[in-house]
Amino acid sequence: MKNNLIAVAAAALCGTMGLVQANEGIDDPQRLPYYEVAKDKKVVFVPLSMGFDLTETWAAVMQRQANDLGYTIDIRDPNWSTDAGAQALTQVISEKPDLIVAHNPDVQVYARLLQRAQKAGIPVLQINMKSAFPTEGFVGPDWVALGEKLANVAVDKCSPANGGSGKIAITQGPLTAAASAYQMRGVANVIAQHDDIQVVSNQAADWDASKARTVTATAVQQHPDLCAVIGFWDGMDIGTGAALEESGLSEQVTVITSGAGTTTACQNLEKGVFDVYVSYDAKGQGRDLNMLIMNIFQADLEAGAVKASLFSPLTEIHADTIKADSCYSLEELQTAAQG
After folding, report:
1. Closest to 278 (Cα-Cα) out of 149, 138, 148
2. pLDDT in tens, 216-233
């Protein structure tokens, strides 16, 4: 009898505990470690430059997570100077932050510095443009696939079989930048399959809109029947659109470009500055960066122990396919980061 009473009492106690849990819930055992591991960490971002949509987007998205989780984002802005960027990275390595985010001007210039950072035990993430030296993670487009996508658009538009002249121009950034070298490989892969397509101009404009304007003006003077221009970044290709407007060839020449996907991109499609735009969604890239940052903090592995790539989805946009969510507002992201 006594044992039965004990059993009944134990069952009642368990029932009471279950009722408390149902009313109050239970704590997530992984929650506290998640926040504790990020607290007071230091991340340093070395971009090509601040002041344009890509870098401002990444900074805003990273800053919001840093604010939420209690770590810091320190930006060292070299303002388009490769030498200043190398000096900034050298200084950062000596400070031994918990993580570096690097935006590489080209495939070689930071390679030894990134290797030095890894040897010093500092994890490194690379954003949008790769170095020849791989580190913990890369976030950005599959540039070869992007080049193929842009070239296929040009071929469809300009093939003589479709009524085009077959003549296209290409405006690259610096030739040694990953976004140029890899993207050019993708373009070349497609063009090699089409004997009826002729590349009449292939010039570097170094991410500079004024240089793109000059390059395009020269191309249309030499080839007034030019059918399309493939540009490697929309910030630069605004100059391409301006040159075509001045020459009166905006309706004839198709401008095909790519970029962050901010509201400015959709506005330029609506204005006819661009005809085809491929977004690699810098806002989404920022979220990918944030996930890798927290993965590195939580894994706590030796620097260089892992190598990961997160390729950004590519979305083709035309003026007549723009939707409410086709482009995002940089201003809204920056406001959220400040809040």
Report:
1. 149
2. 999 999 999 999 999 999
